[in-house]
Specification:
Blueprint lengths: L4 E5 L1 H18 L5 E7 L3 H9 L5 E11 L5 E9 L9 E9 L3 H12 L4 E9 L12 E5 L5 E2 L15 E4 L5
Parallel strand pairs: 2-3, 2-5, 5-6, 6-7
Antiparallel strand pairs: 1-9, 3-4, 8-9
Helix pairs in contact: 1-2
The structure holds inosinic acid and magnesium ion.
Length: 176
């Protein structure tokens, strides 16, 4: 049976919030440049849209991690599947994530980038599910705080599907 998807955040709401985040980040980094780290694959769409709204110089790099299998529960352990291409020593790193859930991914990455001698490390997430937090992380920029529901779209997948939806939605009948 085809999945039924209920819209949680529309394309317009996402666009408006991304412009606000871009403006705030541009203000906060005035006179500096940003080393934007996009966490693949989920954050790809958000990171590109956000980068377009930032007015200070931006370098983009991409990294892939995994803490999830093909299902919807976290394994807790974070692995690097693809590392960055560029050195980040002395850079103002802005980690861009799709969603913060247990907090394991962002916790692991912020420590890793500090160890790699970034000048500063900040985090920006499109979505935050605070109910599911296992480790405390200091997120600097949050798009939307959402309830504990499994969401898809705007980069987020369920078993690699639905990343291309232009909105954020909830599958109402998963696995049916
Ligand atoms: P954390 O390490 O538990 O914070 O998990 C973060 C990662 O889990 C995200 O980057 C997503 O890839 C994935 N994830 C967590 N919640 C969802 C969801 O509701 N939909 C799709 N992916 C999710
Ligand atoms: Mg992800």
């Amino acid at each position: 049976m085809a999945d039924r998807i209920r819209v949680m955040l529309t394309e317009e709401e996402l666009d408006k919030r991304i412009r606000e985040l871009g403006a705030q980040i541009s203000e906060d980094y005035k006179g500096e440049s940003i080393f934007l780290v996009c966490i693949l694959k989920g954050a790809a769409m958000f990171a590109c849209e956000l980068a377009k709204r930032i007015t200070v110089p931006v370098t983009m790099d991409f990294m892939a991690t995994s803490s999830y299998g093909s299902g919807t529960t976290s394994s807790g352990e974070v692995k690097i599947k693809k590392d960055l291409d560029l050195p980040m020593e002395g850079a103002n790193v802005l980690i861009v994530e799709d969603i913060i859930d247990s907090g394991n991914t962002l916790n692991f990455l912020s420590q890793l980038f500090k160890d790699r001698n970034a000048r500063s490390v900040r985090m920006c997430t499109m979505l935050d599910k605070p109910d599911r937090r296992e480790v405390d992380v200091d997120v600097d920029y949050t798009g939307f705080t959402i309830p504990d529901e499994f969401v898809v779209g705007f980069g987020l997948d369920y078993a690699q599907k639905y990343r291309n939806l232009p909105y954020i939605g909830v599958i109402e009948n998963p696995g049916e």
